Amino acid sequence: MAAQAAAPQLTKSKPEGIDLYARFALAGALGCSITHGAFTPVDVVKTRIQLDPATYNRGMIDGFRKVIQSEGVSALATGFGPTFAGYFMQGAFKFGGYEFFQKKIGETLGAETAKNNRTAVYMVSAGSAEFFASIALCPLEATRIRLVSTPGFANGLVGGFGKILKNEGIGAFYSGFGPILFKQIPYTITKFVAFEKVSEAILSQFDKSQMSAGASTAVNLGSGLLGGFAAAIVSQPADTMLSKINKTKGLPGESTASRLLKIGKELGVRGSFAGLPTRLFMVGGLTAGQFAIYGDIKKLLGATQ
């Protein structure tokens, strides 16, 4: 009896090109939208503290109590729609873009040069990715802030977005683009660089190939938490200004730059850091969750480079 021919071995090829970066983007989109959506109640209180510090002047817990007493528990979910949609888009561009720019910069510089200058590579990759991510986020963030800062403004994402577009035009969505870049680019650079440095320091103490999935997730959580704390402090003044500039439309003929200067003078240094404890709690938790979810989904999708 003749020997049977061996069945051909099917090898699963690693994703590459658009397929690879689409997986990075999906992992980032899910990480950011899930975490930001879950933290919507904290974001509502944080925004109220920034916009009305005279009323919300006794911290996060008291802020929750005042919102619930005056508007009901459902007010804590205000802005969930634009938050989830906006950060789904932003997360795709941010994490997918970070991986893309890291790869392209590495190819341009060469592996050895890129490794020796990896902090600079992290910074340029994060800043470049965030620029495009902010373009996607800005209209939805403007809608979220208007919904949170003006109770009764509209009934959710579609109503709020449509009302701003109809009454103020498309330019209103980007009145906060300067502040959002001023906030998001330093925030994202700090977040990624701190995450990379902390995780490098932790992983240098262990054999990475022997680490369990749970241990890898724990490293991502811890590194993300510290990265989030650093990013929150760096970007807090711009976050406060963004909330202020999106609360109301400008006066006729008033430029964004003049509005920013006026808001900056009104706030001062102390006012610029209003709501920082709440934001530290929020951003630390967000960033820890994002990196943990991103890392796990990347593995699930087989997205490595």
TrEMBL record:
Naming one, the record's GO cellular component terms include: mitochondrial inner membrane
Question: What's the domain of life for this entry?
Answer: Eukaryota
What is the recorded membrane topology of this protein? Multi-pass membrane protein
Where are this protein's Solcar repeats?
19-104, 117-201, 215-300
* Location within or outside the cell: Mitochondrion inner membrane
**InterPro entries per UniProt:** MCP_dom_sf, MCP_transmembrane, SLC25A3/Pic2/Mir1-like
Single GO MF descriptor: phosphate transmembrane transporter activity
Q: Which Pfam families match?
A: Mito_carr
- Keywords tagged on the record: Membrane, Mitochondrion, Mitochondrion inner membrane, Repeat, Transmembrane, Transmembrane helix, Transport
Task: Please classify the protein's predominant subcellular localization into one broad category.
Answer: mitochondrion
Any Gene Ontology biological process = mitochondrial phosphate ion transmembrane transport
Q: Does the keyword Iron apply?
A: no
Q: Which PROSITE patterns does this entry report, sorted A to Z?
A: SOLCAR
Q: Which family does it belong to?
A: Belongs to the mitochondrial carrier (TC 2.A.29) family.
Q: Name it.
A: Mitochondrial phosphate carrier protein
- Taxonomic lineage per UniProt? Eukaryota, Fungi, Dikarya, Ascomycota, Pezizomycotina
